[in-house]
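User: Reviewer 2 asked us to show a designed sequence for the structure in our supplementary figure. I'm pasting the structure tokens here. Could you produce the per-position amino acids so we can include them in the response letter?
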């Protein structure tokens, strides 16, 4: 497994200073930052505008590229979202059931966890308060009994486990 660490803004600023002000070589900069010279060379080549390397511009470019690469592609699932908005009912037709039914109908669907992440991040119209309850309202641990854990995974609570009102 690679232990690659991305270049930080502090390192980029140091590269800018050493390259533009002191006119140091790529080899010297790599030695100063304790990085491979290929990494420094690639960084300079990628982000050098005209003859000057600017740390802020390269950090800005990196941030934009990073956000674009990690974006959830909701636009790929428009047909599924229409199906979800029409059929979602928290008591009888949950998110899990909608994903399963859409797969049966041959609609391109994301993973169930992805849909829950979209809800959590407010990327779709369904809100977390519209759900019957949060997906895992407690974590599985030794302090909870196993039957309570099994009940938490159900879409509805058995009547025997509903608290009695006095």
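Assistant: Here is a per-position design you can include in the supplement:
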């Amino acid at each position: 497994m690679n232990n690659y660490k991305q270049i930080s803004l502090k390192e980029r600023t140091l590269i800018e200073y050493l390259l533009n002000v002191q006119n140091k070589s790529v080899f010297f900069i790599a030695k100063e930052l304790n990085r491979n010279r290929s990494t420094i060379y690639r960084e300079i080549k990628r982000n050098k505008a005209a003859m000057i390397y600017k740390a802020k511009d390269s950090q800005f470019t990196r941030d934009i590229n990073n956000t674009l690469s990690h974006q959830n592609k909701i636009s790929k699932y428009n047909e599924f979202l229409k199906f979800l908005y029409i059929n979602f009912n928290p008591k009888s037709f949950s998110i899990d059931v909608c994903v399963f039914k859409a797969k049966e109908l041959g609609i391109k669907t994301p993973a169930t966890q992805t849909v829950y992440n979209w809800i959590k991040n407010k990327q779709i119209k369904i809100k977390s308060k519209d759900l019957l309850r949060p997906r895992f309202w407690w974590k599985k641990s030794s302090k909870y009994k196993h039957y309570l854990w099994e009940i938490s995974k159900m879409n509805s609570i058995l009547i025997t486990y509903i608290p009695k009102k006095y």
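For the response letter, you might also mention the following. Residues 9 and 56 are 8 Å apart (CA to CA). The longest helix spans residues 55-69.
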